[in-house]
Specification:
The chain is mostly helical. The protein is built from nine helices and no strands. The chain has two domains: 3-48, no CATH class; 61-150, Chromosomal Replication Initiator Protein Dnaa, Chain: A. The protein is elongated. Mean pLDDT is 77; it is low at 1-34 and 51-56.
């Protein structure tokens, strides 16, 4: 059974049986709710992968922008806009830095998401990195909270 087929099959079992996949350490308890060949496939998969998730929350540029806007109490349009107000600039720079560090996107791609030139993105990421290296509490706390919301 292919990996994607396995996830589809598991999704059907979850809906039908109300089974919730658990981390590898608790699979014995979960295994009691399933029997037969599916259990063998489940066991084989658990041995190959220490943690088993049906659908991981995917992080995208949009989700980073939304989480950043939520953290700073501003609109996503403010982050994507052209305003040079400090509250928007900091949020925009942090969102760009998170796109770079979390999504590993090239500067050109981040620039297209934010409607900015790649050199602007490079400068923004560099400024946030500098503030992190200087142990700037405001930036460190903001990034930690936004990352927590993304997971």
């Amino acid at each position: 059974m292919g990996c994607s087929n396995f996830f589809l099959f598991l999704g059907a079992v979850v809906k039908f049986r109300g089974f919730i996949p658990l981390p590898f350490q608790k699979r014995e308890v979960a295994a009691k709710t399933i029997s037969g060949s599916f259990l063998k496939a489940f066991e084989a998969y658990c041995k190959a992968k220490p943690f088993f998730w049906i659908a991981a929350k995917t992080i995208s540029g949009e989700s980073i922008i939304n989480a950043t806007a939520c953290y700073f109490g501003i609109y996503t349009e403010d982050i994507l806009g052209k305003s040079h107000a400090q509250e928007f600039v900091l949020a925009r720079q942090i969102a760009m830095q998170l796109c770079r560090s979390q999504l590993h996107l090239p500067f050109m791609k981040i620039g297209s998401i934010f409607s900015r030139d790649h050199s602007t993105v490079m400068t923004s990421v560099k400024q946030i990195q500098q503030r992190l290296e200087e142990f700037d509490q405001e930036v460190s706390l903001a990034i930690a909270e936004i990352q927590r919301k993304l997971v």
